[in-house]
Amino acid sequence: MASLIDTVRDFKGFSDIRPKPRLKDESIPRDMGLPLLGYTLDFLKDPLALSEKLYRRNGNIVRTRMVNEVILMYGPEANQFVLQNTDHQFSSEWGWWYHLHRVFPNNVMMMDGDLHWFQRKLMAHAFKKPQLVEYLNRMNPEIRTGLTKFPTGRNVLMFPAIKKLTLDMGAKIFMGTDVGPQADQLNHDFLVTVDAAMAIIRDPVPGTLMARGVKARQRLEDYFYGMIAQKRATQSPDFFSQFCHAEDDNGQRFTDKQIVDHMIFLMMAAHDTTTSTLTTMIYALGKDQKWQDRLREKSMALGNDFLEFDQLAELNEHEWCMNEALRMYPPLTSMPRGVAKDCEFQGHKLYRGELVGISPILTHYLPEYWSNPYQFDPERFGPGRAEQKKNFFQFIPFGGGHHTCLGQHFAGVQVKAMMHQMLRHYRWSVPKDYTIPYQLVPIVKPKDDLPVTFEKIR
Ligand code: HEM
Fold first, then answer.
1. Neighbouring residues of 285: CB distance < 8 A, sequence distance ≥ 6
2. Nearest in space to 150 (alpha carbons), one of 142, 158, 141
3. Which protein residue's CA is at the shortest distance from atom 12 of ligand 1?
4. What is the pLDDT of residues 398-408, one digit of tens each?
């Protein structure tokens, strides 16, 4: 088998050669929306409402258009078929290419087959239990310092405050450094780069979102390139350093470019998704004071601000709340793939070259699987009800199969550690009639930055 580095070097990507599908199965219902744009604007506005409409009208598979023609597949069976990908019939590269190749090129989520397997295996070392224990120990004081900088009082904007804190933590844990004075610029650049992934105009034409995204990406690259020499010269227990020193059996190392591409993707994957989850939890608990008190009681009972790894399991209710936030607002509301081999789903033929998409968010609201799906009800994840267990693929905020989120446990540790300290020292609320105005694409976030009343209690 080729070595890790050879595979990376030789890899050209499927996307350049994604063929036009030679056939289309006419048994798949068509619901195409407007000429050219299709349902793109509806998708950008509210992917849940659009998916519900398409699902109600057409059933669990439909051919539609979001600029590109795409077959949307709904429900746990479709999720399983696409994510398990048992015959490698789907390509992540072809699915994500359209969105990510300019702003997050060569990232592991966009890789297929051997290349993906090698990269994922190497990365997985950084997410093993001893590393997670170490990360938690380093997170705890960061959270304490970060929280002391949160403003208190009315109309505290939670989203930017949380985003800054997760970026600072990510920088320490992934890069082994303080971000320093560039923090605001870096934060801005990550934000613009992620937004550009969903830009309608795909070429970096001056003045467009994509042009800003490409520029922001360039600044991120400069930042990471600027640190490589120092990272190669020393060894430290952070992810950046591990990449700089990783060697295959022939003693070959990653190039600077490969390291920079992975680091930028990882910082984004870690930073925006966790921020989104924490923001939803803060919103939901700000509305539901009973649940906030229940979690606070648990956190108080543990007695210490700095969680230890073995104490994580004691915070069950925190986990139910996190799961409920991820059910209602999964940071990634949909996942795309390309059909790499002709295959068949429930009697419908999918041809090589077609694009398909699955929808975690729609699955998370299907009344066959969830009672009162529009209600925030963390108890549904408790052992008494365990609603998520009806079907393994009904709850997929972290995806599934080959590309299951590598940072799932890391995110759980970070969210628990963060909520734990917040609950022990602060109380927060939102007005009873307040509903968070969400932007669901590309990654779920509040349009109004989530203003809350935030008070110190001890
Ligand atoms: C609550 C937080 C998070 C959510 C909801 C989330 C969600 C996801 C999802 C849905 C995928 C799969 C996408 C697909 O199959 O197309 C994914 C992949 C990935 N995530 Fe996360 N993620 C989270 C946090 C993190 C964190 C903290 C990290 C890193 C520290 C991370 C690193 C990754 C990586 C490296 C992949 C690609 C894995 C592969 O392709 O093999 N994620 N994530």
1. 291, 292, 295, 321, 428
2. 158
3. 399
4. 999 999 999 99
Residues near ligand 1 (Cβ within 6 A): 92, 108-109, 120, 266, 269-270, 273-274, 277, 326, 331-332, 335, 397-399, 403, 405-407, 410-411
* Both tokens assigned to 321: 């709340």
pLDDT in tens, 292-340: 999 999 999 999 999 999 999 999 999 999 999 999 999 999 999 999 9
Architecture of the structural domain at 4-456 = Orthogonal Bundle (1.10)
Mean pLDDT of the chain: 91
Cα–Cα separations (whole angstroms), residue 425 to 145, 150, 315: 13, 12, 17
Alpha carbon of 232 to ligand 1 centroid (Å)? 26
CA dihedral sign, ordered 409, 134, 256, 228: positive
What is the rounded average pLDDT of the residues 7-27?
67
Residue 157 CB neighbours (<10 A): 15
- The partner residues of 351 in beta bridges, in order of sequence, read none
